[in-house]
Amino acid sequence: MAAFYMSEELVGILRQERAASELQTQVAQLFEESREDVYRYLMTLGLTPSRAQDATQEVFLRLYAALKGGEEIENPRGWIFRVAHNWGLKVRARHASENPFDADMEAKLAAPAHDAEHDLLERERMLLFHRAVEALSEQQKRCLFLRMEGLRYPEIAAAMGISPSAVGEFLRRAMERLKKVRDE
Amino acid sequence: MSNWPSGHPEEGLLLRSLDGELPARKARQVRKHLEACWQCRAEMESLEATVAECIRYRKQVLAGLLPEAPNAWQTLDRGFDRVDAELAAAPLWKRLPRLAPAWQWGVAAVAAAALLIVAIVQFGRTPSVQAASLLEKAVAAASAHPAPVRTIGIHMRSGLPTLHTVGGAAGNWLPLPPEIRMAFQAAHYDDADPLSARAFQAWRDSLPRKTDDVKTEPAAEDPHEPCYQIRTQAPEGELASVTLLLRVADLAPVESKFEFRDQNWIEFIQVMEPPFQPDGSPVATTHEAPLRPVVPSRPAAVAPRLSASISDELQVVTLLHRIGADLGDPVEVNLTDGKVLVSGAGVSPERQRQVHELLDGAANVEVRFSQPEAALIMPPADAPATGGDTANVGIQTRLEKQLGGRAAFERFSTHVLDGNEAAMAHAYALRSVAERFPAANEQSMAAPDRAQLHRLARDHVAALETQVRVMEGALDPVLAGVGGKATTVPSAAGADAAWQQAAEDTFRASRRLEVLLSVLLGVTPGQNAAGDLPSQVLAAVADLKAGLGRCQTLLAQ
Predict the structure, then answer these.
(1) pLDDT class for B174, splitting at 50, 70, 90?
(2) Average pLDDT taken over every residue of chain B
């Protein structure tokens, strides 16, 4: 009987092995689709472009390792942002001299538009909105950026180590402030 | 009667409704209110416009103006190879399948089965083979590389955790108290470097009788770092058991725990971020510093202590449970800076008062609520139920007919959704307890703490089970009348399974039932209208009951 169960276990492992190349294809596809989003999120955490790029690659490789190790991941995108968030904070802590992500954002927003779509009013509006975003607390900002990437409250909560209710409260406060700017 | 003190849902509720994050019944209440209230509908439209502004900001500012990646994106192929190579250091039972090409399915299965038989015949007990093989590799890996500089935390049954730098110029000697050093020597365990595969292997090989257990676990210092955990129990000798964690990537030992026969224990944990000087040289001096905010021992709590322990955290969580503050209130409990911090944003003033009354003055506990004016009031739900979604009108019409009309359907819907809401509160609370006190930490808790933890978890399991029975009593006859087929799911739990995992499974089953119920009762549109929804709901109930059964079995052990 024990041998029977072990054989079943081996069959499962063999299936995983056969699925390894499929797994690589899936992770590579997700990497293609989401790497810019992850990279951008890491930049908003304050990582330099080169570190954000390295960290992005590492996050997807961790996803591959986790999946290959048999971890069941219901929502890979949520998982990726959770790991990116924690990894990004670690990198940021290690390199305390990182610049804030918006170091020259204001200058860029104030610069003449490159195309007709960005007229003066629109840029002015975005500049005000950007300042309002920057004025949010760190936790409000994290919740907002992760929500912008499509994460649900429990996923944001898992990434930040807080409760979903707290995520709701941080987002409410963030939206309250941003709404004022929009209505001005 | 209004569901909200002000007569209107607060902005937080509107936002959570917009984001699809409200429990089904509350979402239905908000939606009904919006149909009737222009003021709130205008407020909702303003929120939607702000969300749209956020999307524009993401596109125009974040995506448009942040610097692009400095280098062209490379494919992950080389990274995949690296990960595969790291995983290739797996023990024998993991390497077996790689002996055959994956596509040669039948050949691989036969070859693997044959190898397995050989392995069983030759070695008798698989965990022992795994442990021996892993240790052999880890010793070889350690011999191939010079001893690195490591920062190791030592955590004993009593006393504060301490950090020490070893390896390199600092040498490998760990400053252990004389009594611990003597205990190691009496157990024939190398006390010079207890956190090493070589010392573990030598001790294990010297045992006439032993039991091994091998599994994969995340490292305590870095949950994303997969490790092999080898635990060897000895029926005789000074040491009752030793647990060693080897990092999967390079088989480096990162944690070890020693449990002595006299109930003493000691842990060694390699801190993942060694404290290097700016010039790259290691910090040479030994210093006292908190390693973990957790002191997992009640005996240690008997003596006056300066910092809180996991026992204190458990006490606080239990007290909050007694006043129901663990069921839906955004009250946070964290062990931080040597104390149990109870905090929360948006907690109602009444709840804050209760928590202050309960915990103010308790040693090593701080209560700190922020911005009470921003309270997110969760009113008691007493609105009449309603359906109204169009996606599953077919099944709802059948239910109405089965129940005898629209009014009866609404009563039924309210009854079931109320039960579900109460059930979900306990499902969340149960999972929260399981996450806060994971199996790894529970092992190091004293027996009274473990018993208290189990009582707390059993409370939630029992309350959840009561609510499930209420729902089941209402659902069974009605769904059977519209063609739903009941199923049974065995609830047997493995003897070595952890109740925390069963709690997580139970939470997932609860969530699945919640989603199915909201579709069935027309609270949210569903994609499986054409499927056998009544049977799916009954199956979800059975699944949830099975999960609860597993929890009860494991918590009774």
Answers:
(1) low
(2) 73
**Closest to A40 (Cβ–Cβ): which among B63, B74, B98?**
B63
> Rounded to an integer, what distance in angstroms lies between the CA atom of residue B321 and that of residue B436?
14
Asked whether residue B316 falls in the same domain as residue B245, the answer is no
Residues of B in contact with A31 (CB under 8 A): 76
Question: Would you call B329 and A165 a contact, using CB atoms and an 8 Å cutoff?
Answer: yes
- β-sheet bridge partners, residue B211: B233
Residues of chain B with Cβ-Cβ distance to A50 below 8 Å are 70-71
CATH entry, A1-101, from 1.10.10.10, 1.10.1740.10, 2.40.40.20, 3.40.190.10:
1.10.1740.10
Residues B160 and B228 in one domain: yes
Q: In terms of residue numbers, what domain contains B367?
A: 310-374
Give the A window 87-146 contacts with B, CB below 8 Å. 87, 90, 94, 101, 105, 108-109, 118, 122, 126, 129-130, 133, 144
In order of B348, B433, B526, the CA distances from B249 in angstroms are 48, 31, 44
**Which of B91, B123, B155 is the last residue before a domain boundary?**
B123
| Beta carbons of A175 and B46 less than 8 Å apart | no
pTM for the structure as a whole? 0.43
**Is B388 inside any structural domain?**
no
Strand order, beta sheet including B365-370: B331-336, B339-345, B365-370
- Of the candidates B58, B65, B96, the beta carbon closest to that of A10 is on B96
Question: With an 8 Å Cβ cutoff, is A30 touching chain B?
Answer: no
- At residue B24, the pLDDT reads 82
For residues B80 and B91, give the distance between their C-alpha atoms in angstroms, rounded to a whole number: 20
Mutation target vs A (from B66, B74, B320, B514; most A CBs, 10 A cutoff): B66
- Is B354 in the same domain as B399? no
ipTM of predicted complex? 0.83
Looking at the fold, whether B267 and B402 belong to one and the same domain comes out as no
Let me know whether B282 and B217 are in one domain.
yes
B75 located within any domain: no
State both tokens at B323.
């006043």
Rounded to a whole number of angstroms, the distance from the CA of A77 to the nearest CA of chain B is: 16
CA of A142 vs chain B CAs: smallest distance (Å): 13
Q: Which amino acid is at B521?
A: L
What are the tokens at A54?
A: 């390295």
Q: Is residue B6 part of a domain?
A: no
CB B307 within 8 A of CB B290: yes
Residue position matching structure tokens 């908003």:
A44
Output phi, psi for B285, to 5 deg. -85, 145
Q: Does B288 lie in the same domain as B156?
A: yes
Residues of chain B contacting residue A147, judged by C-beta atoms under 8 Å apart: 19
Residue B285 covered by a domain:
yes
- Domain locations in chain A as residue ranges: 1-101
- CATH number of the domain that residue B207 is part of: 2.50.20
Q: What percent of chain B has pLDDT over 90?
A: 5
Q: Residues of A with CB below 8 A from B120's CB?
A: 3, 6
